[in-house]
Amino acid sequence: MSRLRLRGLGVELGGATVVDALDLDCPAGSVVGLLGPNGSGKSTVLRTVYRALRPTSGAVLVDDEDVLSDLDARAHARLVAAMTQDQGPGFDFTVLEVVSTGRVPHQSSLARESRTDRDLVAGALARVGMAALAGRSFAELSGGEKQRVLLARALVQQPRVLVLDEPTNHLDVATQLALLELVRGLGVTVLAALHDLNLAATYCDAVHLLHDGVVVASGTPDDVLTEERIAAVFGVAAHRSRHPTTGRLHLSFSPLPSPFHPGVPL
Amino acid sequence: MDLPPPVAGLAPARVTGSVAPAPSAPARDVAAADRSARRRYRRLLLTLLVASPVVLVLAAGAGAVPIPPADVLAVLRAHLLGGPVGEPVVDQIIWQVRVPRVLLAFVVGAALAVAGAVLQAVVRNPLAEPYVLGVSAGASLAAVAVLTLGGLTSGTALASLGVPGAAFLGALATLVAVVALGRRAGRLDPARLLLAGVALSYLLQAATSWLQLRSAPNQLAAVLFWLLGTVGGADWGDLALPTAVLVLATTWLVLQGRSLNALLAGDDVAASLGVAADRVRLQLLVVAAALTAVVISVAGGVGFVGLVAPHCVRLLVGPEHRRLLPATALLGGAFLVLADLVGRLVAAPLELPLNVVTAVAGVPFFLVLLRRSTRIPGGGA
Q: Origin, by domain of life (chain B) (predicted)?
């Protein structure tokens, strides 16, 4: 298990500072949530971690290795895998082909699929419950099935750090819970951008609250997700309570009075 | 308690039938899917490997002087393995005229088909083809300029290039312009590349039309024929360069097959898989453009095969590039040999340009395949 740290991360896109001097720590084996409203820089931070974006300053460290400057793209991809918001390939790949792509950082261009490659792919498909659909066209799957396949692709990369960008988007309630349950059971270090604060409160060991590219609070969900902070960052009124069965933090929301029409809810 | 009670785990999705899966069922399912994909691919490749030589021999035998396949084979045997050369006239027709012609048709078809498959991945668009990036329009303009302004420019550098040389340079110049226009924030943007290519194509085509309008009637036939594609008049000397480029480029591209697969999943996903999308895209673009430029410069603007051959193969064995590219090369090659054959036969002694045949014969075939297939070439989610 590996520890992921971001040190002084800064990203400028088109001249605008999107992320500024960001520090973030994910202890080995923990599931860490990155929270914040749309446009707060969550995806930007994640994209630097899986090398889709070069930060303007700062470093991404896996254990003590600076993965952006010390490793090439392939070596980086053997340490860090991502499940992004892309909805898979544009052409009509089978489930098996999509998952097999996860082995790319481990394969030389001359080599054929090895026994290990095949075993890992079969194992990952079994783990996400998609083995029976291995020969099916990826494009014809439901949203939840696609997410499982994309998770399997990330798993066969054998990463030490797994990055998830809104993994529960467009999924029904049961699939959301099952997916995060599965992720928690993987035993890898996870950094996930989440919109659903209750899911974050349930499944994350720690969360970082992002606002305009800056971390405004870090810690356990219980400590970070106060009613004041949620009002300031998300612009909604939050009401804290305890989940009746899990005992964990549970949030309910209502609109704050509109800044345009005081006294009238948005 | 730290965590909620376990939620029912991910049940196997949509397993058909009511039989409870045995413990090793997932591994068996995956292996079965793998095997069936391999079998499908082997069957297609074998078919194409058998069909291609057959088509080449039949095409070499057909023409104004029909020569039976056995005699074609005898001539080939005499030249390749040594032995008695038969009737000199037959030998002349087969070895000096028809064999270079059918081989060139094969190489041109294969190169355009491979270039099309690669460009569809590079710009991530099923409508892409070798001409969409303006490469062909640039080659055509330069070729037509030499054909029509030949008299005016005689003695200049342009004239000394000849039509193939000018076409090649025109193609490369266009590629450089499209890549320059397709960059945004230091990265090659697929949508921008596509739009820059299409826009530039229109501009170059306008210039070509203008040259055609002001060309002499006796030049016009040559210009039109070149624009519509032909492998007529091919000799052995025309074959060496396109063949070498085709073999080298296709080998390299097959080795990049995994990167091409990753690229199709999007730039972010490619990055997360250790594939630097931007660098790979530029390399692929240059190789595909070189393939296109080399064959356009000898055969003119042959359309359609680069769009359709890759899709036909995708419909049969899927878009995995290490399978797609070799099969696409063979299919594109065989298809263009047949197109050339039809063009020589239907209106004999007149020859139809390749473009006319590829469109008339290819479109219905493609539409039938499209309707019968469950796979979608664009694979829209």
A: Bacteria
B67 in a domain, yes or no? Answer: no
- Partner residue facing B274 (CB), from A104, A137, A179: A104
| Single pTM value for the model | 0.87
Residue B151 is predicted with a pLDDT of 55
Does residue B26 sit within a domain?
A: no
Is the residue at B54 inside a domain?
no
**A12 and B CB contact within 8 Å:** no
Amino acid at B38: R
Confidence of residue B135 (pLDDT cuts 50, 70, 90): confident
CB neighbour class for B83 (10 Å; exposed up to 12, middle 13-18, buried from 19) = exposed
How many Cβ atoms sit within 10 Å of the Cβ of residue B222?
16
The radius of gyration of chain A's CA atoms, rounded to the nearest angstrom, is: 19
Reduce the secondary structure of A3-65 to three states and give it as a string. CEEEEEEEEEECCEEEEEEEEEEECCCCEEEEECCCCCCHHHHHHHHCCCCCCCEEEEEECCE
pLDDT band (50, 70, 90) for residue B22: very low
Domains in chain B: how many in total? 1
Sign of CA dihedral B317, B320, B325, B326: negative
Give the range of the structural domain holding residue B346, as residue numbers without chain letter. 75-372
Q: Do B175 and B289 meet the contact criterion of CB atoms below 8 Å apart?
A: yes
The CATH number linked to B344 is 1.10.3470.10
> Is the pLDDT confidence value at B157 over 80?
no
- ipTM value of the model? 0.90
B129 token code pair: 């083809």
What is the overall mean pLDDT for chain A? 90
- All structural domains of chain A: 4-225 (3.40.50.300)
Judged by CB atoms within 8 Å, which residues 14-53 of B form the interface with A?
Answer: 14-16, 21, 25-27, 29-34, 36-37
Query: What is the C-alpha to C-alpha distance for residues B38 and B28, in angstroms, rounded to an integer?
Result: 15
User: Is B245 a domain residue?
Assistant: yes
Look at A225-234, B46-55, B207-216 and tell me which has the smallest mean pLDDT. Answer: B207-216
* Residue in chain B lying closest to A14 (CA): B185
**Rg of chain B over all Cα atoms, to the nearest angstrom:** 24
DSSP A72-100: -HHHHHHHEEEE-S--S-SS--BHHHHHH
Q: Show the DSSP H helices in B62-98 as ranges.
A: 69-81, 88-91
Q: Do B265 and A88 lie within an 8 Å CB cutoff?
A: yes
Confidence class for position B5, pLDDT limits 50, 70, 90: very low
CA dihedral B84, B90, B94, B96 (to 10 degrees): 90
Kind of pairing between the strands at B183-184 and B187-188: antiparallel
